[in-house]
Design a protein that fits this description.
8 helices, 6 strands, 34% helix, globular
Length: 221
């Protein structure tokens, strides 16, 4: 039979074991894996702020202006071409040229993710916290919005690994890398999607999708 001192020692040991073993709340969001660190460095190396410029026609893969005249009205932004290029370099398929032209591609990409995406390895995520957790594990994650007016462009951006506080994540969304009317290596989802108020500011219509990545990067060219 154990005496009181032995029981006390066992109780303390058990309590310490619980402290060591029990995971902290929010670890999946807070921790950035080595795989995610590689993705973060890759996103930072893409030079998106000087490539895929709005207002001119570009080579969708490289983001370089290709001197093809634009014949249709509009801002001619390249968020979807950029997302397609980054995915291709990671060995991941998302709807892109030549299967779909650059015009209204972002709307078409979300429609494709909602229908054919699962068969191509994409997983739908329920919210921003899940998207951040997936990005922090090293998955390729996109935030996608389809315009209410099918004749106008939607938007798509890449979710960056980040340790931003849960409160900030709730208010401003994850940090993203994107091309668009303004190109950003890093900005908040709220700012990046500001031209589409229903995506985040007025409603939370943005959708998140993740795809695993095998750790290989195939540079363009």
């Amino acid at each position: 039979m154990l005496d009181r001192r032995q029981i006390g020692r066992i109780g303390v040991a058990a309590a310490l074991a619980c402290v060591v073993v029990a995971p902290a709340m929010g670890d999946d969001v807070d921790r950035i894996s080595p795989k995610a660190e590689r993705l973060l460095h890759f996103y930072d190396s893409l030079g998106v702020e000087s490539r895929w410029p709005a207002g001119v026609h570009v080579n969708w893969e490289t983001g370089a202006p290709d001197d093809v005249p634009e014949r249709l009205p509009g801002a001619h932004t390249h968020c979807s071409a950029f997302a397609g290029s980054v995915a291709k370099q990671l060995g991941i398929y998302i709807l892109r040229p030549p299967e779909h032209g650059q015009v209204l591609l972002a709307n078409a990409q979300l429609a494709w993710l909602e229908t054919a995406g699962a068969g191509a390895g994409w997983q739908s995520l329920p919210d921003a916290a899940s998207a951040q957790a997936a990005a922090n594990k090293g998955l390729f994650v996109v935030a996608s919005y389809r315009n209410h007016n099918a004749a106008k462009p939607g938007h798509i951006a890449i979710v960056r690994p980040s340790t931003k506080p849960v409160e900030a994540l709730t208010v401003e969304g994850p940090d993203v890398t994107q091309a668009g009317l303004h190109n950003y290596t890093s900005t908040t989802l709220a700012k990046g999607f500001a031209g589409h108020p229903y995506a985040w500011i007025k409603a939370r219509e943005v959708r998140f999708y993740a795809h695993d990545w095998d750790g290989k990067i195939v540079p363009l060219g």
